[in-house]
């Protein structure tokens, strides 16, 4: 019975689902220009945050987002949050002389322990 119901069907090449009743999410097109002057479009969801740069699918170059008038979008530098490194956060809590003193104490402790390690413990 199962052989008869699948006879003539190309499994794996065609979907049995239809697009009937499917509602696509609202979308917007963003235009980018690469350094060589070519433009390309990328489709995003309407509520998605559009990135300032996007890689061209044809050339692989980074394209800059354009306004509806065709001018490059100027990124507001104040909006960009600069990531802090561990060193920056450490310097917020301690001064450099304090850090050097702590380092020296730790080095002295490690050097004093160097000959006291037990083998097989």
Largest sheet: 4 strands, antiparallel
Number of continuous helical runs: 3
Q: Look at the structure and give the mean pLDDT.
A: 83
Structural class: alpha+beta
Strand order of the largest sheet: 2-1-4-3
Alpha carbon gap, first and last residue: 71 Å
Which residues sit in consecutive blocks of at least 5 with pLDDT less than 50?
none
Q: What's the level 1 CATH class of the domain at 26-76?
A: Mainly Beta
Q: Give the helices and strands as they follow along the chain.
A: HEEEEHH
Proportion of residues in helical segments: 25-40%
- The Rg value, from CA coordinates, equals 30 Å
- The CATH homologous superfamily of the domain at 26-76 is called RNA polymerase-binding protein A
CATH architecture of the domain at 26-76: Single Sheet
Instruction: Tell me the β content.
Output: 15-25%
Number of DSSP E strands:
4
What general outline do the C-alpha atoms trace?
A: elongated
CATH topology of the domain at 26-76: Rubrerythrin, domain 2
What descriptors fit this protein?
alpha+beta; 17% strand; 121 residues; Rubrerythrin, domain 2
Summarize the structure in words.
With 121 residues, this protein is an alpha+beta fold. The protein has helices spanning 2-6, 86-93, 96-113, and strands at residues 27-33, 39-45, 53-55, 62-65. Among the domains are: 26-76, Single Sheet (Rubrerythrin, domain 2), CATH 2.20.28.270; 86-113. The protein has 3 helices and 4 strands, in the order H-E-E-E-E-H-H. It has a 4-stranded antiparallel sheet with strand order 2-1-4-3, with no helix packed on it.
């Amino acid at each position: 019975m199962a052989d008869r119901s699948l006879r003539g069907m190309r499994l794996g090449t065609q979907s049995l689902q239809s697009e009937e009743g499917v509602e696509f999410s609202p979308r917007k097109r963003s235009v980018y220009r690469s350094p060589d002057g070519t433009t390309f479009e990328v489709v995003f969801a309407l509520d998605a945050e559009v990135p300032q740069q996007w890689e061209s699918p044809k050339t692989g170059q980074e394209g800059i987002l354009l306004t509806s008038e065709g001018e490059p979008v100027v990124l507001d530098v104040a909006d960009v949050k600069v990531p802090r490194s561990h060193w920056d956060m450490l310097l917020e809590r301690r001064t450099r002389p304090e850090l050097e003193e702590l380092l020296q104490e730790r080095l002295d402790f490690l050097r004093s322990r160097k000959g006291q390690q037990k083998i097989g413990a």
